[in-house]
Amino acid sequence: MKLNIAVLPGDGIGPEITQQSVKVLKAVADRFEHEFHFEEAAVGATAIDFWGNPLPDATLELCRKSDAVLFGAIGDPKYDNDPSAKVRPEQGLLKLRKELGLFANIRPVKAYEKLVDRSPLKAENISGADMVIYRELTGGIYFGEKSTSEDGKTASDLCTYSVEEIERVAHLAFKAAQSRNKKLTLVDKANVLETSRLWRKTVKEIGKAYEDVQLDFLFVDNAAMQMILNPKQFDVILTENMFGDIISDEASVIGGSIGLLESASVGEKSALFEPIHGSYPQATGKGIANPVASILSAAMLLDHFGLEKEAAVVRKSVEVSIQFNVCTPDINKDNHYTTEKVGDFLESVI
Amino acid sequence: MKLNIAVLPGDGIGPEITQQSVKVLKAVADRFEHEFHFEEAAVGATAIDFWGNPLPDATLELCRKSDAVLFGAIGDPKYDNDPSAKVRPEQGLLKLRKELGLFANIRPVKAYEKLVDRSPLKAENISGADMVIYRELTGGIYFGEKSTSEDGKTASDLCTYSVEEIERVAHLAFKAAQSRNKKLTLVDKANVLETSRLWRKTVKEIGKAYEDVQLDFLFVDNAAMQMILNPKQFDVILTENMFGDIISDEASVIGGSIGLLESASVGEKSALFEPIHGSYPQATGKGIANPVASILSAAMLLDHFGLEKEAAVVRKSVEVSIQFNVCTPDINKDNHYTTEKVGDFLESVI
Ligand SMILES: CC(C)[C@H](C(=O)O)[C@@H](O)C(=O)O
Ligand SMILES: CC(C)[C@H](C(=O)O)[C@@H](O)C(=O)O
Questions:
Q1: Are residues A141 and A215 located together in one domain of the fold?
Q2: Global pTM value
Q3: Among this protein's residues, is B249 annotated catalytic?
Q4: Is B78 one of the catalytic residues?
């Protein structure tokens, strides 16, 4: 298979981890005789520094004409603590999601048997947990109108959803549930929000076409608690943009490290693959960042194009690395490997 | 001291737990020679059933003229699953908060040494955790304009905040930090939301007047993760309405049971005290609901009126009950006591 992959390393640890994924994907191409073509472009704070724009036109253009995007991370503390900054790295990612129509963010979360003891949660509570979160990614309060009054004394963010926006991601989530344990939990705040009530109504309606899937509802506050009390109850979680952001980062504690969690963002035409962790600026250049989340995102990329055998090989290599403790310090404190060494190892196992 | 206390038992387990708190407060009044006068009124689904209104005028009137409100819980599944219901129990609570101007919801969270093993979190991660969450309670997306288009195809919720709304709750939180470990963490999503940027800017500004307090910022997704990874890092958390709802329910896992978590909602003129758990309809009338959250809320009520010795006695009685395992099944699975028995025990220790 021939694939054009846009590589957007971004900020902080983005470049160093993405480099490992590219290495692994190249090894996959070699072994399975595919032709993967990689082209890099700038995004985030890095792009602001050079072009004054977190998503330069050339970058967007490249993503549009590529088959897939491999994304690193973005974010820089110098913008976080400057509430008056007009241009922010995050705008690059948000615009990219919107422009490419990546309406569904898919985040698998599972407990690795070898790592259950590393979680802050008790092993018996998480052992066997295996869920996937479908987060709506191009709507809601992220993209609604924002405003600040002229005197700077009030601000607002609008959260909107349409039936259509809910339906398309809901169908993906129901289908995922059908191929898994046939349980779907909608997380919302229907006792307070009008948009949540639209979600609940629409998802209920769609659910009729998926009779084999058991549909449940949880208020987001309760869900945030249940995620810790009993994560094994979840199979597929479906939720809106902001709740998905919170719940999925929270869920990362189940895996033992946020450095292990991959994600795929898909739309009608495009697909982007990124770790759920951020740019982790404190770690930049130190060789301590875990490349696994990015590499597992690359495995999702392979899956996306039907290269399931290839994806399985990548996942297997990650399992081997965990088995043999060839891990960065977030997982292997005492005798750890660098980001690059872990990448080398994974590449070598392909 | 003479106190008029409005008692709003509400729905589900609300009445049975509130009854225990009233019992305990009466014992306190007896022992310390206070005059507490209790008057009951309807709220929530119960009030809808009788008056078609989740907050009847008479209830609001009673709350206004009382010194404090002791609130049970509201919510009924028959409304949750009917997205088209026009009247909902929650509206009663939300309107009450708004009408009484209860802008700050204060939720202490701590790990009871005796119960650390009951948490889904590892004991070493939570032992010693002790924080208090200041949640803004009358603004944000809860109270902004809501709408559904005529064809029912789109819905929206507006999140707004003014500098004033942020300032008043922030001052309370900073003061709390001064009397505790001098650390305040603002939880927001300033990399995406305009309102969060206003929060960050305003809180930074206010922080200058509290030089002895160390001010930190966390994005809400990261905060949801940190709450589990390392809850001991928190002293006072300040956040907006929706994030506070999610984060504080999540934080309940630290205490070992949501049935232990109390809260106070305060404003310029009024104060309301309620457990953070909901109406727990499945447990109604079974005698298994934990009355402690409500009773500790009553202790916050005593504190609020400067009755610190009295509040300490109530808290001590709870500690004794936990020490001797006189607890409902959420805490004592094997040989548990009923809601009423726990209430009787606590009353007897006063
Ligand atoms: C960087 C930020 C804008 C982003 C989000 O909130 O969506 C991130 O937290 C994520 O989850 O991908
Ligand atoms: C019942 C509901 C409206 C309420 C809220 O979301 O504020 C509850 O969850 C709470 O936290 O007090």
A1: yes
A2: 0.95
A3: yes
A4: no
